Automatic annotation (TrEMBL):
Protein name: LytTR family DNA-binding domain-containing protein
PANTHER family in the cross-refs: STAGE 0 SPORULATION PROTEIN A HOMOLOG, TRANSCRIPTIONAL REGULATOR-RELATED
InterPro entries associated with the record: CheY-like_superfamily (IPR011006), LytR-like (IPR046947), LytTR_DNA-bd_dom (IPR007492), Sig_transdc_resp-reg_receiver (IPR001789)
One MF term in the entry's GO annotations: DNA binding
Organism listed in the record: Roseateles albus
Keywords for the protein's UniProt record, in alphabetical order: DNA-binding, Phosphoprotein
Gene3D superfamilies per record: 3.40.50.2300, LytTr DNA-binding domain
Record-listed 4-aspartylphosphate modification sites: 57
A Pfam family assignment: LytTR
Domain Response regulatory residue range list: 6-122
Superkingdom classification of source: Bacteria
């Protein structure tokens, strides 16, 4: 029998902890190895058990979930577990993702949303060499390893909300940030454009150049310039130049 994904729950609310444990038990590829009700216990159990997947409440007695994760990172004694934060407050979302959280469940959340977070987390479970069987199990559990990204968290006027990827018109980047355009607004995301490139549906999103990806659903036209490079006109009026290789491929694909 293949090794299951070792899972730890750190949650100080009894009802929430019980619900998480019940949902974990319903997924045959997960194995619950410990439940903790405070941050200090969670830190000790993570160090002792080296779980591959962690559900971590942010507001806990002793240490917050963010403090637990920072402590593990600072002391380099964590096991690169995938962490799914659970909280009733959305103001910690950016801090959570800066700590490379796999997902962020805002209470109250449904079992469907829980299962979605697990699937997302298990696509990128990374374990130590001594736990390579867990990596293999994670890969088997996450069959859709290359499935497209469906939404991202963006910030606007102090609020954080999920933006459906289908609504993204284009992405432009500099060294550290990516500007994500949608419905007349641009949202700065603290990730390079390469972080999105492999997760976007290639049937819909086209990389025009190193720093620009467009959603073909929002392209109005493509017109060659004097150098035979295509000028891509977007619905919002933005214009981008496809590099020579992309321009050539697009011309060859045109009917």
């Amino acid at each position: 029998m293949s090794t299951r994904i070792t899972t730890l729950i750190a949650e100080d609310e009894p009802l929430a902890s019980e619900a998480l444990a019940e949902w974990v038990a319903q997924l045959p590829h997960l194995e619950l190895v410990s439940s903790c009700a405070d941050g200090l216990s969670a830190l000790a159990e993570i160090r002792r058990l080296q779980p591959a997947l962690i559900f971590m409440d942010i507001n806990m007695p002793g240490m917050t979930g963010l403090q637990v994760l920072r402590t593990l990172a600072e002391n380099q004694d964590g096991n690169q577990a995938r962490v799914i934060f659970t909280t009733a407050y959305d103001e910690h979302a950016l801090a959570a993702f800066e700590l490379h959280a796999a997902d962020y469940l805002l209470k109250p959340f449904t079992q469907e949303r829980f299962n979605e977070a697990v699937e997302h987390a298990l696509r990128s479970v990374v374990s130590s060499d001594s736990n390579s069987s867990t990596v293999e199990a994670a890969a088997a559990a996450a069959a859709e390893d290359n499935s497209p990204l469906t939404r991202i968290l963006v910030r606007d006027q102090g609020k954080i909300f999920p933006l459906q990827v289908d609504a993204i018109e284009y992405l432009r980047s500099d060294i550290k940030y990516t500007a994500v355009a949608s419905a007349g607004k641009q949202y700065l995301v603290r990730l390079p454009i390469t972080s999105f490139e492999q997760r976007l549906d290639p049937q819909r999103f086209l990389k025009l150049q190193r720093s620009c990806i467009v959603n073909l659903d929002f392209v109005v036209s493509m017109t060659p310039d004097e150098n035979s490079q295509l000028i891509v006109q977007m619905q919002d009026g933005s214009r981008f130049t496809a590099n020579r290789d992309v321009s050539k491929k697009l011309r060859e694909q045109s009917i």
